[in-house]
Amino acid sequence: MMMMMICSVVSVLFPPLYPHILAVTTNSILVNWTNPEANFESIRIFCEGHQGALNDSLTIPYGSDTEALCNGLTPGGLYLVRLSTIPLIGDIDPAESVIEGVITGML
């Protein structure tokens, strides 16, 4: 009698760790994070302004930098910065970290 085992591997993707703001100017936000200990394709950064309007988005490949500059922001604007870990495998949901209430410098 032959036995057959079926295994299922469940992968969990962790979000970027310890996201924080390094610098704020009148039109930009410099954000930094620590990469999770997992393989992933890239980190996607979204800088959203008032009422969810997307002002800037960046993609940082795995293994490269752990900081990014969101540009083209409005002076004195309130922004939400979202960092998402993009998986290598398409059937795993991205994992997300959020920095809320970042205000750019005034003119």
What topology, given as strand order, has the largest sheet?
A: 4-3-6-7
Estimate percent helicity. under 10%
Low-confidence spans: 5-10
Q: Kindly report how far apart the N and C termini lie.
A: 79 Å
Query: How would you sum up the global shape?
Result: elongated
**What count of domains describes the coordinates?**
1
Which CATH architecture?
Answer: Sandwich
CATH superfamily: Immunoglobulins
Name of the level-1 CATH class: Mainly Beta
Number of H- or I-type helical stretches: 0
Report Rg.
Answer: 18 Å
| Secondary structural class | mainly beta
User: How can the largest sheet be summarized?
Assistant: 4 strands, antiparallel
Pattern of helices and strands: EEEEEEE
Oligomer: single chain
> Strand content of the residues, in percent?
over 45%
What is the CATH topology assignment?
Immunoglobulin-like
The average pLDDT value, as a whole number, equals 81
Number of strands: 7
